[in-house]
Predict the 3D structure of the following.
Amino acid sequence: VYGESDFGIAVDMDDLAANDYALHPDRYREPSVVFENGGAFGSVMQSISRGAPCMAKDLDRMSSHEKTDLRFLLMNDIRDGIMNEPETSLAFIDDKFAKYQVRDGDLIISKNGYPYKIAVATVRDGLKVIASGNLYVIRVDSEKADPYYLKAFFESEQGRRSLDRISVGTVLKNIGVDSLKKLEIPLPPVEIQRKFAEEYRRGQEHICRLQEELELRKKELAGMYDKFPL
């Protein structure tokens, strides 16, 4: 039942319980979306975990001043929906953080900082990456869903609204593991998802090529003055 104020809403205890007793009004203003071929996000997950609970002192201890094939993935390494090769090199990975390793094809979703950052992990052979604690690493069951299809959905207007609806917090929004698992998402047959994902990847690869060209032109312009005969 809607309240009289634009800033509040009256809900019954059953609705509160179904939403883990979250008290943010936005969660209840819009009804849950029900998809014809829908299912819980958790039903297509092999696993979901937060990144490594790595303190600053832990990262300082493991960091390397030289480039290595051990990297630490930060939110800043995800730009324009693309996971770039992490810039933070590590000399070693502490055994207690080894289980937070990111694999190629994992779906990465930021835990906080709306709009949330979403990317499919690209990890070349020989590279080992662990994620920071403010990222969710989701291993998708490839027999049930394609990570690029899921990424495209969460980047859509409908997907962003779905994530916003399960967000908690006012100043800094964040999403919880249980809410993500319960979130209803569209799940057409996986063969259709894969065809869609193939076209999506081609578009993303085109963006990567354009970004590389842009960076090259920026470097050329930055060095142009030094080459100009005065």
Summary: The CA atoms of residues 59 and 90 lie 8 Å apart.
